[in-house]
Design brief:
Elements: H1 26-40, E1 44-48, H2 54-61, E2 66-71, H3 74-87, E3 94-98, E4 113-118, H4 127-134, E5 138-149, E6 157-158, E7 161-169, E8 172-179
Parallel strand pairs: 1-2, 1-4, 2-3, 4-5
Antiparallel strand pairs: 5-8, 6-7, 7-8
Amino acid sequence: MRVIAGEFKGRRLDAPKWEGLRPTSDKLRETLFNVLAPRVEGARVIDGFAGTGAVGIEALSRGAAHVAFIERDPRALRLIRENLARCGTAADRYVIIRADFLSPRDWGSVAPADLGLLDPPYDLEDVDLALASVAPRLLPAGVVVLEHARRRESPARAGGLHRVRVLTSGDSALSFYEST
């Protein structure tokens, strides 16, 4: 796994050494950020189900002002910290929050965001709840992107968001949402 472009381009990121965490592939991250390119510079980002932190780190590398990494697994939290340190990311550009993404009351004071980037487990049953969790923290004209298995259709609407685009790549898909 590596950072695709920007300030940290080419930096290697550690992958998990345990089962159950599926990092977003380099190819899919590249597709995601090619689409989001005009929105990333100066953006405030929520990286939900952050895992390795690769998606949020890619956003920082491409000029995002701040990323809130939200993850509940302590092993993944350590991995995010290590990957941020490897990139030499300034501490004022991110916050790491140990919380279940589906419990936004536990997120603390996460500031409103321009982008919500969600990569839940592909078998998550509460995708609607994940979208509804981030919707109130989205700034006007903000976008949420949900990564999911291609074989599972994403909800057309959830939590005040409506799907505006779906891109597929291999076994994965990216569904883009805006406020209704």
